[in-house]
Every structure is written in C-alpha cells, then in structure tokens.
C-alpha cells in the first residue's frame, strides 16, 4: 500500500502516485540513451527487460513506504491520461528531486510544470526548508530547468553517471526563495491534492 502521496493537478498535466501497473509504460518510455545518459550510474545499463518493475518494487515503493520518498507518474490531462514521465522528491542528502520525461514530450515546458507541483509539495506540504538536486554540468536541458526555477549552483565536483564520470553541480533553492519567486509569478499554481489512492 502506497501512502501519503496525493494526486496533484496542473494546467496540462497531473501527478499521480506511482503504481505497479505503471511499470509497462515506464519500461517502454524510459530505456533510451538520451534519457538515461546523465542519470546516476547506480542503474543497470543496458536496461533489463524487467527493469521498471524491479525499480518500482525494490527501490521506489520501499522508499515511499518508509516515508522518505514521494513518487508520481506524470500524466497528460484529458480522457486517456497517458503516462509521459516520472518525478519524485526524496529526503536524501543533496538529492531531493529526480525526474525524466519521455522523448516525445520534451521541449514543451511539461517538466517545468511537473516540477512546480512537486516542489510546492516539498516545501508547502512536507515542510522541508531546502531543496538540493544534483545534475551533470553537461545536462543542459536539466540545468536550464533549474535556472528557470531560480535555483543556485552551490557546488561542483566529479560524479559518476551512466555515461561516465564527469563534473556535476548541486543546485539549491530554499523555501523562502521558492515562495518569493512563486509569489512574483502570476502563472504559478499551487498543488491541489485531489484524491488519495489509499
Ligand atoms: C530534463 C528533461 C526532463 C527536460 O525536459 P524539457 O522538456 O526540456 O523540460 P521542460 O518540460 O521544462 O521544457 C523546457 C523547454 O520547453 C520549452 N517550452 C515550450 N513551451 C514552454 C512552456 N509553456 N513553459 C516552459 N517551457 C516551454 C522551453 O523553451 C524549453 O526549451 P529549451 O530548453 O530548448 O529552451 C528532459 O531533458 C529529460 O527527461 N532528460 C532525461 C532525464 C534527465 O536528464 N533527468 C534529469 C536528471 S538531473
């Protein structure tokens, strides 16, 4: 039983608590080089045929059940609500948010929208004071996203990724910085927990 992960509604997408049935869509969309190359080297590559199911069952769901991770599928609004990516926030040192988006949906601002929902939840509902995220310096789409969010680069050092060892940055924003940026942005929406999957 997954707990404490609400559904969050955005303008174009919704975040829904990850369930085991999501492993099929994840297995189809996730194992592409353009998606995995700047992810942490801990994952198996080439990706095994049961990789998505095992990740959910052996890593994600236990962390959610322990209350240290909140993980969502990203779904397009509308009747069919297809899964297009995954985002999670976690109570881990210097590693508080992770995400990926299926290739067909890049470049439309959809992850920016997903990040607003998940980050609002991190600060406003979970009450954490700081969010820190690691990312390869070469991962320009992810860096641009953090820059647009007003995150600051606080540290750079080598780190191991699926594509090898390379410089990585730790990006940070505080609750106060996030809220001041949010209040200055009229287009920003707060998260709207609609229903629990409990
Ligand atoms: C990181 C990742 C999610 C970024 O995806 P993305 O589609 O670029 O991110 P967004 O959804 O925020 O979209 C931003 C882009 O959409 C464009 N865009 C179009 N409409 C937009 C809108 N309404 N609002 C904001 N941006 C919009 C922006 O100009 C920007 O394009 P640009 O970077 O070429 O300037 C994606 O590259 C990915 O899944 N990468 C692999 C996994 C990964 O690296 N994860 C992060 C590990 S740290």
Notes on the structure:
- The chain is of the alpha+beta class.
- The chain has a single domain, classed as Aminopeptidase, CATH 3.40.630.30.
- It is built from six helices and nine strands; from the N terminus they run E-E-H-H-H-E-E-E-H-E-H-E-E-H-E.
- The strands form two sheets. It has a six-stranded antiparallel beta sheet, with helices on both faces. It has a three-stranded antiparallel beta sheet with strand order 6-8-7.
- This is GNAT family N-acetyltransferase.
- Pfam families: Acetyltransf_3.
What is the helix/strand order?
EEHHHEEEHEHEEHE
Main pleated-sheet profile:
6 strands, antiparallel
CATH fold name = Aminopeptidase
The tally of domains stands at 1
Give the name of the CATH architecture: 3-Layer(aba) Sandwich
- Level of helix content? 25-40%
What is the CATH top level name?
Answer: Alpha Beta
Number of helices: 6
Q: What strand order characterises the main sheet? A: 5-4-3-2-1-9
Looking at the structure, what is the overall shape? globular
Count every beta strand, where a strand is a DSSP E run of 2 or more residues.
9
CATH superfamily placement: Gcn5-related N-acetyltransferase (GNAT)
Strand content: 25-35%
What is the residue-averaged pLDDT?
93
Q: Which molecules other than protein and nucleic acid are bound?
A: coenzyme A
Rg from Cα: 16 Å
Unreliable runs:
192-198
For the record, give the distance between the C-alpha atoms at the N and C termini, rounded to a whole number.
7 Å
What is the subunit organization of this protein?
A: single chain
